[in-house]
Amino acid sequence: GRLLTGGSFKLSYYNEYKSYLRSRMGSLSLSELKSALSKAFSADSCSVKQIKQLLEAYNHQLRDYKEHCHFDDNNYTRKIIDRGNDKYNLALMCWRPGQGTPIHDHPEAECVLKVLEGSICEVQYYLPSGENQKLKEKCRGEARENDICHINDDIGIHQMNNDSDTDVCVTLHVYFPPYKTVNAYCERTGTTNTLVLNST
Predict the structure, then answer these.
(1) What is the mean pLDDT of residues 55-75?
(2) Is the pLDDT of residue 175 over 60?
(3) Residues 116-131, mean pLDDT to the nearest whole number
(4) Cα(185)–Cα(199) distance, integer angstroms
(5) DSSP-derived 3-state class of residue 172
(6) What is the CB neighbour count within 10 angstroms for residue 112?
């Protein structure tokens, strides 16, 4: 979708935003990324393409985000860095070797992520059309440092795992609009249960 619709003020604002983005491309700090996201989402709408561009522009350095990193021995962690005035969430996820998510959806929302450290493996499944159906795998792949990924329920449901035996993984996610629960799917039967998302 377009960032803005109609109006001279909005067009001027859009041009200012594009100029700002071009001038900062490839050099945004975390605080500047947060400001750019806030500016983008203050418009009438914000596209997946724009969010990808902003994440591409984020020049991630460990010193920039390490205060938000938290690793747990039992499960991956999720920390909300910016709640985005209820228009989006910016979240940092930390994965020890072998940790991963259940198969889950993204209810009426977009998810765009950037890998900051290590690599993350994704398996996508088709959304089941009925109950008691084994999930059908759609595709699988690996995203490495600096790679950017996007998913929504039109694309499919997915599972993410750090398949490394030795290396941790850190990923940065933008969810819009934000949500507090997801549906987790059983691969064998396609049945679901509701999971409340926790953040550290």
Answers:
(1) 94
(2) yes
(3) 92
(4) 21
(5) strand
(6) 22
> Mapping DSSP to helix (H, G, I), strand (E, B) and coil, where does residue 62 land?
helix
**How does DSSP classify residue 199?**
-
The C-alpha atoms of residue 28 and residue 130 are separated, in whole angstroms, by 44
Alpha helices in the chain (DSSP H): 8-24, 30-41, 48-57, 62-65
Is residue 159 classed exposed, middle or buried when 0-12, 13-18 and 19+ CB atoms within 10 A define those classes?
Answer: buried
H/E element holding 182? strand 181-185
pLDDT digits (tens, 9 = 90+) for 6-39: 343 444 444 555 555 555 556 899 999 999 999 9
C-beta separation of 87 from 149 below 8 A: no
Supply 92's token pair: 């940092």
Cis peptide before 102 (omega within 30 of 0): no
> Of 5, 63, 3, nearest to 31 (Cα)?
63
Q: What is the pTM of this model?
A: 0.85
Which residue is it, tokens 């977009």?
A: 110
50: buried, middle or exposed (CB in 10 Å: 19+, 13-18, 0-12)?
A: buried
Q: Are 88 and 177 in contact (CB under 8 A)?
A: yes
Q: Tell me, what DSSP letter sits at residue 144?
A: E
Structure-token pair, residue 157: 């449901």
Question: 85 and 55 in contact (C-beta within 8 Å)?
Answer: no
d(CA 114, CA 90): 11
